Amino acid sequence: MRVIVTRGAGPLGLDFRGAARRSLVVIASPARRPTPAEFEAGLGVALVERRRMPAAALDPAAKTGNYLNNALALHEARLAGADDAVMLNERGELAEATTANVYLVRDGILLTPAVEAGILKGTTRTRILHLCGRHGVPVREATLRPADLAAADEAFVSSSVRGILPVVVVDGRPVGAGRPGPLTRRIHRWFEDAADEEAARASHPRPA
Ligand SMILES: Cc1ncc(COP(=O)(O)O)c(C=O)c1O
């Protein structure tokens, strides 16, 4: 489900105080999770020139309908033959993919850019960090750079639409062994099992 709240329609111009009635739009469509074959194939990403916008301009932590920054990054990645873009912040640190959070695995530790890198604190990210805590996987929210991605044993992205998808290629070079890594597979399984349990609970609520 996508829920959009807008200031509503109003006269042409940027002053939204002119909008008379707020609008609430709810779009419901079946979610299509990546197939097992798509998971195995993984994603090729490009580190694009286009930077994630700084919080002082428009905070990436806010989930807004303004996706022009991300759309331009995706376009750049597609022109480079990649499936998605990994965007850097204005300091050249890893931020996030165009509609997903980014993770690396190095020496058995899960690393992901901290919120201070200028990212959306995705709901799937929160779940992944929680699941790793529960299963004893060390996690660090850290300042990461392109060299960290290049040197990673594994990498993946996460979002509520796509779940967890391995990143197997960065700028045409394989990440680790160039296929979904073992920790990525474990986290994916924990995540999907937790989602299935939640769906089962929602369809069979316990009597009050
Ligand atoms: C820029 C950006 N980062 C990360 C995410 C992942 O967030 P979530 O896990 O809540 O879907 C999204 C999702 O749309 C996004 O647009």
Strand and helix map with partners:
Elements: E1 2-6, E2 23-27, H1 36-41, E3 43-47, H2 68-79, E4 84-88, E5 94-97, E6 101-106, E7 109-113, H3 123-134, E8 139-142, H4 146-150, E9 154-159, E10 163-170, E11 173-174, H5 182-203
Parallel strand pairs: 3-4, 3-10, 7-8
Antiparallel strand pairs: 1-2, 4-5, 6-7, 6-9, 9-10, 10-11
Quick summary of this structure?
The protein has 208 residues and is α/β, with parallel strands linked by helices. It has helices spanning 36-41, 68-79, 123-134, 146-150, 182-203, and strands at residues 2-6, 23-27, 43-47, 84-88, 94-97, 101-106, 109-113, 139-142, 154-159, 163-170, 173-174.
What does this 3D model show about the protein?
It is globular, with a radius of gyration of 19 Å. The protein contains five helices and eleven strands. The strands form two sheets. Strands 3, 4, 5, 6, 7, 8, 9, 10 and 11 form a nine-stranded mixed beta sheet that branches. It has a two-stranded antiparallel sheet with strand order 1-2. The two termini are 27 Å apart. The model has no long low-confidence stretch (mean pLDDT 95). By secondary structure, the chain is an alpha/beta fold. The longest helix has 22 residues, at 182-203. Bound molecules: pyridoxal-5'-phosphate. Residues 70, 96, 99-101, 120, 122-125, 158-160 line the site of pyridoxal-5'-phosphate. Pyridoxal-5'-phosphate binds at residues 70, 96, 99-101, 120, 122-125, 158-160.
